[in-house]
């Protein structure tokens, strides 16, 4: 598996996903702002990977705080945390990681600034290592849902590149392959940034897992023909009733899957759940630059003056989700009332 992010000496190294699959290039982040820019510009993307990057970025940023006074240190760190939270608004893991780092600072109120900085860097590495372990558990828990012979459709990229390593949705696929199951994968190209054909197909080919790419609009045809046995995606945020936000196009796949009596599964760590939200319509949806829609590899696709609408995510109501695969267990509907379905 290609690594996603790592500490090397005093800096953060990120595989620049904008360059894949043509070039494996490390992006060196030397400042907090470098990491925020990498997240915003999708050099690193995928909810769990963004969480790891946020934690590392804050640890990196804390190194620049030059004070021995705890209150001054905390004030400056909270300013940095506020900047990081704004990097991308939809993914719950980013906020989860930022809050985790804030708690480190708050509980170390009797420690020196240097001790706090060391603890922050250590915690960011733990978050990375723990994320890989969590993804492997998600993969093992999802095995029960994969037939011994199966054709799977997935959308966007929820693989090692979207996480600390191994993957969520792709982690389940990877675990099935490692278990000797006879699987074949169809991958939506995932417009407008083509994460499916560029990243997911790249990962599957690296793992020698049979993969076929389709244009996004071909998915309904395959589902109706029963070519597909199951659909599995990741998630960027899951509300307390089981509604989830994921890459734009996920909702239509869930509707089509249900219409054709094909299971639609979601694979996500518990850090992706936002139990402060009762339903998915409360999840903020990021709208990205319209240029991503009307250009491809720097080439204009439409006439001058053409406008475009570019939401990065959509909401899939819980009623369309057959199960949510977490590191703890497989959650099955009904996902409500309240939060008891998650914590019981």
Commentary on this structure:
- The protein has 344 residues and is an alpha/beta fold.
- It folds into 2 domains: 132 residues, Up-down Bundle (Four Helix Bundle (Hemerythrin (Met), subunit A)); 203 residues, Translation initiation factor eif-2b, domain 2 (Rossmann fold).
- Helix content is 39%, strand content 17%.
- It has a 7-stranded mixed sheet with strand order 6-5-4-7-10-15-16. A 4-stranded mixed sheet has the order 11-8-9-14, with helices on one face.
- Helix 6 links the parallel strand 4 and strand 5.
- The longest helix is centred in the middle third of the chain and has 30 residues.
- It is globular.
Summarize the structure.
The protein is α/β, with parallel strands linked by helices. It is built from 11 helices and 16 strands. The longest helix has 30 residues.
Query: What is the alpha-carbon Rg in Å?
Result: 20 Å
Give the structural class. alpha/beta
| Shape descriptor | globular
- Low-pLDDT stretches are none
Number of domains: 2
- Average pLDDT works out at 95
Please give the alpha-carbon distance between the first and last residues: 34 Å
Order of helices and strands: EEEHHHHHEHEHEHEEEHEEHEEEEEH
CATH homologous superfamily assignment of the largest domain: Translation initiation factor eif-2b, domain 2
Give the name of the CATH architecture of the largest domain.
3-Layer(aba) Sandwich
Could you tell me the number of beta strands?
16
Give the proportion of residues in helices.
25-40%
CATH topology of the largest domain: Rossmann fold
In this structure, how is the largest beta sheet organized? 7 strands, mixed
Please identify the top-level CATH class of the largest domain: Alpha Beta
Q: What is the beta-strand fraction?
A: 15-25%
């Amino acid at each position: 598996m290609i690594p996603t992010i790592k500490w090397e000496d005093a800096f953060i190294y990120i595989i620049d996903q904008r360059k894949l699959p043509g070039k494996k290039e490390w992006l060196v982040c030397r400042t907090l702002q470098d990491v925020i820019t990498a997240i915003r510009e999708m050099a690193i993307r995928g909810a769990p990977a963004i969480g790891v990057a946020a934690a590392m970025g804050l640890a990196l940023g804390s190194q620049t705080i030059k004070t021995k006074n705890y209150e001054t240190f905390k004030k400056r760190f909270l300013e940095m945390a506020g900047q990081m939270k704004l990097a991308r608004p939809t993914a719950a893991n980013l906020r989860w990681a930022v809050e985790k780092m804030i708690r480190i600072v708050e509980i170390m109120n009797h420690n020196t600034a240097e001790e706090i900085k060391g603890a922050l860097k250590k915690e960011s590495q733990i978050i990375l290592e723990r994320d890989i372990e969590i993804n492997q558990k998600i993969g093992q828990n999802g095995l029960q849902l994969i037939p011994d012979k199966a054709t799977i459709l997935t959308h966007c990229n929820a693989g090692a590149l979207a996480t600390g390593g191994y993957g969520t949705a792709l982690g389940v696929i990877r675990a099935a392959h490692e278990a000797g199951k006879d699987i074949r994968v169809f991958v939506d190209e995932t417009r407008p940034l083509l994460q499916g054909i560029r990243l997911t197909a790249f990962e599957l080919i690296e793992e020698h897992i049979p993969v076929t790419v389709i244009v996004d609009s071909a998915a309904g045809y395959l589902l109706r023909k029963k070519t597909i046995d199951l659909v599995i995606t990741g998630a960027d945020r899951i509300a307390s009733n089981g509604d989830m936000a994921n890459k734009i196009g996920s909702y239509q796949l869930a509707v089509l899957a249900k219409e054709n009596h094909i299971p639609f599964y979601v694979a996500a760590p518990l850090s992706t759940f936002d139990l402060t939200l009762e339903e998915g319509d409360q999840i903020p949806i990021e709208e990205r630059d319209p240029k991503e829609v009307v250009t491809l590899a720097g080439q204009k696709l439409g006439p001058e003056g053409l406008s475009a609408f570019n939401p990065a995510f959509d909401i899939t109501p819980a009623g369309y989700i057959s199960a949510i695969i977490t590191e703890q267990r497989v959650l099955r509907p009904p996902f409500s009332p309240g939060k008891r379905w998650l914590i019981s």
